[in-house]
Design a protein that fits this description.
It contains one helix and nine strands. The protein has 125 residues and is of the alpha+beta class. It folds into two domains: 34 residues; 88 residues, Immunoglobulin-like, CATH 2.60.40. It has a five-stranded mixed sheet with strand order 3-9-8-5-6, with no helix packed on it. Strand 5 and strand 6 form a beta hairpin. The chain is globular. It starts with a helix and ends with a strand. About 16% of the residues have low confidence. The structure holds copper (II) ion.
């Protein structure tokens, strides 16, 4: 009888661990869902939106989507550099650590208006 009870206890512990294991699998997307997602389209010759306001210390997920050719974004003040390949999207997690306005530029020549392809990140307290 003791053997049977131990077997049942063991089985229920295993079942509980399996449930906890599957709950933790489901928990991950919920944690990710708390990170705000900002989609930014890159196209000749603009980033849209071209002004983004972020909070210092708050993590965001930036999703860059190229609507035409390959672009690249460099924001020196934020240590951000991301390739945005033609027909692809690129995701970056960013946690701004300082307040200010940070200008980003396209860093791959994409045509005659390349030099005016800018975006500004406004990081507030
Ligand atoms: Cu460019």
């Amino acid at each position: 009888m003791d053997y049977v009870m131990n077997f049942i206890k063991g089985a229920s512990t295993t079942a509980a661990l399996l449930v906890m294991g599957s709950l933790s699998c489901f928990a991950r997307p919920i944690i990710d869902a708390k990170v705000p997602v900002i989609a930014v389209h890159a196209r000749r010759y603009e980033f849209n939106p071209s002004n983004i306001t972020l909070k210092e210390g708050q993590q965001v997920k930036l999703v860059f989507i190229s609507d035409d050719v390959t672009h690249s974004l460099t924001v020196k003040g934020l240590g951000l550099e991301v390739n945005i390949k033609k027909n692809h999207s690129s995701e970056v997690l960013l946690t701004p650590s300082k307040v200010g306005n940070f200008v980003g530029e396209c860093s791959i020549y994409c045509g005659a208006g390349h030099d005016r392809m800018r975006i500004v990140f406004h990081v507030t307290k």
